[in-house]
Amino acid sequence: MADPTPTPGIHHVTCVAGDPQRNVDFWVETLGLRLVKRSINQDDPSTYHFFFADAEGTPGTSMTFFPWADLPPGSVGAGQVSRTAFRVPEGSLGYWEERFEEYGVDYDDRIERFGETVLPFRDPDGLPVELVEVEVPADDPTVPWTEFVPEEAAIRGFHSVTLALSDPGPTEELLGTMGLEEVGSEQDAGGERTRFAASGPVGKYVDVLPTARNGQQGHGTVHHVAFQTPSDEEQEAMRSAVQSAGLRPTQQIDRHWFRSVYFREFGGILFELATSGPGYTSDEPLEELGERLVLPGRFESRRQRIEAGLPDIEIPRPESAGAGE
Which residues form a coiled coil (predicted)? Predict the structure, then answer.
């Protein structure tokens, strides 16, 4: 069987949150990402699904959340994405430290990793997140959203995810099957961190870190990480390669804005393969993204009942912003 087309990198990362309004306030106002889609969890329509991204919802920029208010806090450990990192322009971490102080964000001192400067912090649910300073090229595919954060500091899509694994070996082989190449390793506070690089410009890095600590899903943890397989043909080739490696991927599932295949990798982390299209503007104009509750086709007939069961939320607006504005 021919090798599949290498994945360009991360497509989106989906996490578990608690209070939906607090989640929207933090990711839109504090971090300056755009709410590009307000929808529901298609497997649990009693729960919102929020998509935060760059100005146009470019693949490789979407951090998404299921706000399951009734779940307890989770704990990060083996079998999970333990950290999600975003790219920010060189020289902008000072801005972010000042902003975090103003907004009361829980953050740590800067660290150096693989020659880059990293600012670790946590969202209101305790989710571990990082900002990494990079040189953003002139032809970068991301489009900064500048309603709350100036362009020279705005988040520019994913930098990397860290996979916490009790036995990294099989997963490292799988990453090779998916087209990522090992590019280095260095000692981390938690052990030997190994970095793999995909072929694209955004969300290209996956770090693997061994850990013996068990994780538990709940608020403040990652539900799954999705990798780009831009076309149906590329996705099917990757699905076949994953299946040949001994894993059990699902059939393709239509998620309305992309088509998906899911599987648990050898360490138990839920991976998704996601197509590039049809995209977030397939059912809303670009200028109106996120302004209303969008229900994929089969749910539209249940709109009244679904809306009645969801809490009201307000999208932060610059003219009514709080601290720091």
Answer: none
Q: Is residue 3 part of a domain?
A: no
Q: State the residue range of the domain holding 217.
A: 10-320
Q: Is 280 contained in some domain?
A: yes
List pLDDT tens digits, range 13-43: 999 999 999 999 999 999 999 999 999 999 9
Helix (H, G, I), strand (E, B) or coil at 212: coil
Please report whether residue 2 resides in a domain.
Answer: no
State the residue for tokens 């299946």: 243
Q: Categorise residue 324: left if φ over 0, alpha if ψ from -120 to 50, beta otherwise.
A: left
- Which residue's entry shows tokens 């999600």? 84
Answer whether residue 5 is part of any domain. no
Cβ atoms of 33 and 52 closer than 8 Å? yes
Residue 152 burial (10 A CB sphere; 0-12, 13-18, 19+): middle
C-alpha 48/C-alpha 42 separation (Å) is 9
Give the chain's domain count.
1
